[in-house]
């Protein structure tokens, strides 16, 4: 078996395959393992009630949603059993349940169970020459491909990348060449509003402008295009809405009440103060008349963390064609497997964990694994 991509889905698939007696080759295109997972907050969660998952992600594939929802708790127990370090026993969100892991420790525990990975190797290129070997695509979607993002998601303005730099759609391209179909949600993404200033991987979490729910939201032309009460708790729809505005930019305007709000244990005022100086704008320096009461504005850009649509799979994580027929020897997991959270937002780590395990189980049942 070949596993392309050593982020969460690929590490899990390789570890599970080894547990089942296979000898997978885990290939990673980047110079490190862990993908976006190692950059993440490490909260692996599901909605508390399945009905909430359906309601919040109405365009998603119900069969895959149920699979992830039903198998997550068992998979979290498995991760714990591998020695992955849990730092919180809950998610900090009353709507969801799950665990928060320390991402580096999680990566190392899985890497050990997977038997290591080969770095700087394009797994899809290697697999192209081995059509008889089962292949699990776990390349993390196409957020890092400016061309594919422009083609499917945001033709007008470039989105900044807030995720792993090597996820350029290799899995999607490979699956389509083999006859795989695409899922729903190809024009959607999970992302964040981020300050319009310098930030890098180390600030992906801490610099997130997660206070759209407490702000007034204007674009550069002074159009108030979204109300605070329309912003989801995850704020993922704010990033999507900003992507459609001129320059994929917006201003989040805060009054004293907004600044006094808290996001988990951090005050909005602290988040604003931590934004790069070039992103903080005084009310009289805005390119439009600020509403009365505005104390400060933060200029934000839409940043993409990962794609939502991708390769179509069945409940065995088998890549399927447009008729729903499995493509021989081909499986997909994690962000590569599209359409789970279409229309909304759900845990990408949960999708990677459950589908990584399912893909390995299906691939191991194929002769030659
Ligand atoms: C800042 C941040 C915070 C986040 N916080 C959370 C959170 O708290 N909870 C949550 O659920 N989700 C969170 N996420 C999202 C989560 O990290 C992703 O959903 C998850 O990592 C997806 O797993 P994956 O294995 O599909 O992709 P990834 O983990 O990104 O791994 C894909 C891997 O494939 C490799 N690859 C690409 N192309 C090839 C190729 N051709 N050959 C071989 N390898 C290849 C990539 O380099 C990468 O290592 C966060 C993400 C970020 C960036």
UniProtKB/TrEMBL annotation:
Matching Pfam families: FAD_binding_2
Cofactor: FAD
Key words of the record: FAD, Flavoprotein, Oxidoreductase
MF terms (GO), sorted A to Z: oxidoreductase activity
Protein name in UniProt: Unannotated protein
Source species taxonomy: unclassified sequences, metagenomes, ecological metagenomes
Signal peptide: none
Domain named FAD-dependent oxidoreductase 2 FAD-binding: residues: 2-105, 135-345
């Amino acid at each position: 078996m070949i596993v392309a991509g050593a982020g969460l889905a690929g590490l899990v698939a390789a570890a599970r395959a080894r547990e089942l007696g296979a000898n997978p080759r885990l290939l990673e295109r980047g110079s490190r393992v862990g993908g976006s997972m190692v950059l993440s907050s490490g909260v692996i969660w599901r909605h508390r009630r399945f009905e909430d998952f359906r309601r919040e992600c109405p365009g998603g594939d119900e069969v895959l949603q149920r699979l992830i929802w039903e198998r997550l708790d068992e998979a979290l127990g498995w991760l714990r059993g591998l020695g992955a370090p849990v730092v919180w026993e809950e998610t900090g969100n009353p709507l969801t349940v799950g665990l928060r892991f320390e991402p580096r420790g999680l990566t190392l525990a899985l890497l050990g169970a997977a038997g290591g990975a080969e770095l700087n190797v394009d797994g899809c290129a290697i697999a192209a020459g081995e059509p008889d070997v089962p292949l699990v695509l776990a390349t993390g979607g196409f957020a890092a491909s400016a061309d594919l993002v422009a083609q499917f998601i945001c033709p007008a303005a470039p989105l900044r990348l807030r995720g792993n730099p090597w996820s350029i759609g290799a899995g999607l391209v490979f699956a389509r060449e083999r006859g795989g179909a695409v899922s729903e949600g190809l024009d959607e993404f999970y992302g964040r509003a981020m300050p319009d200033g310098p930030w890098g991987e180390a600030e992906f979490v801490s610099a997130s402008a997660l206070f759209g729910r407490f702000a007034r939201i204007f674009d550069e032309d002074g159009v108030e295009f979204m109300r605070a009460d329309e912003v989801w708790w995850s704020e993922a729809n704010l990033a999507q809405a900003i992507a459609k505005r001129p320059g994929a930019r917006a201003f989040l305007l805060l009054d004293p009440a907004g600044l006094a709000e808290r996001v988990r244990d951090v005050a909005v005022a602290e988040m604003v103060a931590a934004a790069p100086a070039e992103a903080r704008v005084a009310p009289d320096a805005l390119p439009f008349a600020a509403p009365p009461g505005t104390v400060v504005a933060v200029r934000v850009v839409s940043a993409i963390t990962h794609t939502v649509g991708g390769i179509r799979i069945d409940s065995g994580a088998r890549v399927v064609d447009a008729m729903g027929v499995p493509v021989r020897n081909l499986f997909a997991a994690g962000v590569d497997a599209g359409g789970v959270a279409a229309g909304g937002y759900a845990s990408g780590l949960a999708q990677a964990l459950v589908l990584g395990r399912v893909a390995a189980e299906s691939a191991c049942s194929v002769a030659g694994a």
